[in-house]
Design goal:
Blueprint (H helix, E strand, L loop, with lengths): L1 H6 L1 H24 L15 E2 H12 L2 H32 L11 H49 L1 H21 L2 E2 L2 E2 L1 E2 L1 H28 L19 E7 L4 H5 L4 H17 L3 E8 L7 H10 L6 H8 L6 H8 L3 E5 L9 H5 L3 E3 L18 H13 L7 E7 L25 H6 L3 H5 L2 H26 L4 E7 L5 H4 L6 E8 L2 H5 L7 E2 L9 E3 L3 H8 L10
Parallel strand pairs: 1-4, 5-9, 5-10, 6-13, 7-8, 7-9
Antiparallel strand pairs: 2-3, 6-11, 6-12, 10-11
Helix pairs in contact: 2-5, 3-4, 3-6, 4-5, 7-11, 9-17, 10-11, 14-17
Length: 552
């Protein structure tokens, strides 16, 4: 290399200058890199980071050996912060929140399983390799870039000192006058702000874990005897159903809403002909874009279960769930139908379920629809054949989770005649004729369109099942677990989801007359909005339960 430089001095100088410029651009870009997808705009990268000026002063002043050690360490730290910002971008895109360095590592296993189901083994492996290589590359390039710049600054100390002095004056002027470009401040201290943000998040996470443990031990109905729980629903077959990713955007977004609203309205009319009535409102979910189990546990427990630590804490406690409240009475048998569960599920004990049917216990022999193990229509028919349609000594309390509307919304199942469902092989041709996930994932408009179709499918399957098999004692509560990812719902979408109660018995609705909910399956835009954690206590009190608090 040295010989080539001696023989090609001009080319070597040009390449050296080019590499140094690229190193400088990389370092500056790392200092101002946004951690939210909506902030990726050119103005963000025209900012002057104060951290770069401070780093230049420190590296220029140090002797050679301490300077190189500091440059290597500083480059690695800068690379780590860059990776964390990129993780934030991904988490905001899919989960509507930043990456939590304490809680979120286990989610990568779930993400890989999801990729295997949607992209196949080869595609998932490719993403995994990229996910492992990119951080290594970022760390290496970041460290090498800082070291190279430190060497350049050391060779030109006088020039570096003058340049830093001028740029410092520019930074202070921009800061004092609040100068901006396209609404973005020119003077940046983004890295310092992000370090403070991450430090605060870690402290909050540790404190929240300790405080939530106390919260979970206190329960408004913790000591209520079974005889005083939901007495006004005795004799009713209760069904609590979640529709995956069924969020407010499906009902109000201009692309998705026309089809979804038409389905909700036509389903309301069809149910009315069958003698059913419905009331609906809005609930604000504790999660967004994914982590459905947080929405399920929030709704059922009456606690705000917004992260994995809280979930582990509450499911390890004896905090009363809605489903367990029915079991505690001794007047209901409890069952879960979980086509999305493909491994051990110890949480069933906390939910108070006597029996759980997972993905492998419903006799399905048809194709998977991306992540979803089986179409909702098939899962509901199996619920009827194996549980609901059989004679039982007690009414049923059923907990059903429908999965066909899980991203990436390709391919999508279609309704088939109920008497032709068989073992599910009828869906082979439908699955093969459907869209490929890769064709939908990268296109926001198509993602919205196909997402809307899956919600229409799930609502249709559920309401047709109710028309077909419901009776005077059936009470259905169904809702979404969370909004879809921001590519579909938008960067600033609410976390609201629709919730509906459907029954034939008018007494069921008399008990909730003061809720202010809308008639029908489609909540009005102005319908009440409650936190999802508020539903349990409101529901229990509405149907005659007597509070007997426990303090833990």
């Amino acid at each position: 290399m040295r010989t080539w430089k001696e023989n090609n001095p001009v080319a070597a100088k040009v390449i050296g200058i080019g590499v140094s410029v690229l190193a400088g651009l990389f370092v500056v870009a790392s200092f101002v890199l946004p951690n939210r997808p909506e902030n990726f705009e050119l103005a963000q990268f025209t900012r002057l980071p104060v951290e770069a000026l401070i780093g230049a002063v420190v590296l220029t002043a140090l002797p050679r050996r301490p300077r190189l050690i500091t440059a290597w360490l500083g480059g690695i730290v800068l690379g780590v912060l860059t990776i964390l910002n990129l993780l934030d971008v991904g988490f905001y895109q899919y989960l509507g929140r930043g990456f939590n360095v304490i809680l979120d590592w286990p989610l990568f296993t779930d993400a890989y399983s999801y990729l295997q189901d949607t992209l196949g083994g080869t595609g998932a492996l490719g993403v995994l390799i990229a996910a492992l290589v990119i951080p290594v590359v970022v760390l290496g390039v970041s460290a090498l870039a800082v070291v190279r710049l430190s060497n350049v600054m050391a060779r030109h100390r006088a020039t570096t000192t003058r340049s830093v002095l001028v740029l410092s004056v520019v930074w202070m002027t921009c800061q004092a006058l609040s100068l901006q470009v396209a609404g973005v401040p020119l003077a940046a201290e983004h890295t310092v702000t992000m370090l403070q943000y991450r430090s605060d998040r870690i402290r909050e996470t540790v404190r929240d874990e300790r405080e939530f443990g106390k919260t979970a031990r206190a329960d408004t109905f913790g000591n209520t005897p079974g005889s005083q729980l939901v007495p006004d629903l005795r004799g009713k077959d209760m069904i609590f159903t979640f529709i995956e990713s069924y969020g407010r955007s499906a009902v109000e977004d201009p692309i998705m809403a026309p089809g979804v609203d038409k389905t909700l309205d036509s389903s309301t009319q069809a149910l009315a002909k069958a003698g059913f009535h419905a009331k609906s409102g809005w609930l604000t979910s504790a999660t967004y874009g994914g982590s459905s189990w947080l929405g399920h546990s929030t709704f059922m427990s009456g606690l705000w279960v917004s992260n994995q630590n809280r979930y582990r804490t509450v499911t390890a406690s004896d905090h009363l769930t809605l489903t367990d409240a029915f079991k505690k009475t001794g007047a209901w048998d409890t069952v879960g139908v979980m086509p999305g569960v493909q491994k051990g599920w110890p949480e069933s004990k906390w939910y108070g379920l006597d029996k759980v049917y997972n993905a492998f216990q419903l006799g399905y022999k048809g194709p998977k629809f991306s992540w979803s193990t089986m179409p909702d229509q098939y899962a509901l028919e199996q619920f009827q054949q194996r549980v609901h349609g059989k004679k039982h000594d007690k009414p049923l309390m059923s907990f059903v989770i429908l999965t066909s509307s899980h991203q990436p919304w390709a391919p999508i199942p279609k309704m088939v005649p109920w008497n032709q469902l068989g073992n599910g092989s009828i869906f082979d041709a439908i699955q093969k004729a459907g869209n490929k996930p890769a064709d939908i994932i990268a296109d926001p408009t198509r993602s919205k369109e196909e997402y809307g179709k899956t919600i229409q499918y799930s609502v249709t399957a559920l309401t047709q099942w109710l028309e077909r098999y419901g009776n005077e004692n059936t009470v259905l509560v169904f809702l979404g677990d969370h909004q879809p990812i921001s590519r579909v719902s938008g960067n600033h979408a609410s976390r609201d989801v629709p919730c509906a109660i459907v029954a034939k018995d008018p007494k069921v609705f008399d008990k909730i007359a003061d809720w202010g909910w809308s008639d029908g399956l489609r909540p009005a835009h102005t319908a009440p909005v409650w936190k999802m954690s508020a539903f349990r206590d409101r529901f229990l009190k509405a149907y005659g339960s007597t509070p007997h608090p426990s303090t833990g």
